[in-house]
Design goal:
Helix content is about 35%, strand content about 25%. The protein has nine helices and ten strands. The chain starts with a strand and ends with a helix. The protein is an alpha/beta fold. It has one domain: P-loop containing nucleotide triphosphate hydrolases (Rossmann fold), CATH 3.40.50.300. The strands form two sheets. It has a six-stranded mixed sheet, with helices on both faces. A four-stranded antiparallel sheet has the order 2-1-4-5, with helices on one face.
Amino acid sequence: MLNVTDINQYYGSSHTLRGVSLSLQKGQCMALLGRNGVGKTTLLKCLTGVLPVSSGKIMFEGRDISKLKPHQRAAAGIAYVPQGREIFARLTVEENLLMGMATKSARHASRIDPVVFDLFPVLKEMLQRRGGDLSGGQQQQLAIARAMLAEPKLIILDEPTEGIQPSIIKDIERVIRLLRERGDMAILLCEQYFDFAHALADTFMVLSRGEVVAAGVQKDMDSADVKRHLAV
């Protein structure tokens, strides 16, 4: 579903991504690992079109999307849950959810799929509350639900456990596992919390200084070489 070949990206004179390649199949969850500042979020922003790539190719379902704008990639089926959630604080929970359906036709963009309330019951109780009034964990649930309402083929999650209480982390893990088991989308999970990523991933990739330094299947994530690149 997603094939990234030898992409490079620069911030000014800083070479932030160095020949990064990855492949992600439908129904798979890939964990993107690495210390802070190694290029993980930069890579995700390149995949979603927020940042341009300097060279290389991003293929999605056999189509070259390297030059497409973010809204075009969203329309193609890529949903992004950014680090820090970035919900609309002054809009209600309901309005935030409706924003997730902006790529749909007008006829289908006003009806919230009740499945998100089965997965995140707290959102149904808070539909008319402003997003900024929710706790950090509730905002993260809202951000994931908003992305799900776009009915994506690929969902990208940037550190969904950051600053979240343990009980909510368990809820988020349950939802990601369910999405993976449904098998109708690919999941790219960027995560600092190793145990969380290890429990969900089919494959993994480790970045260090903008380069891929390790990659493989889930059973290899416990290796000393991988953990060496994650230790602070």
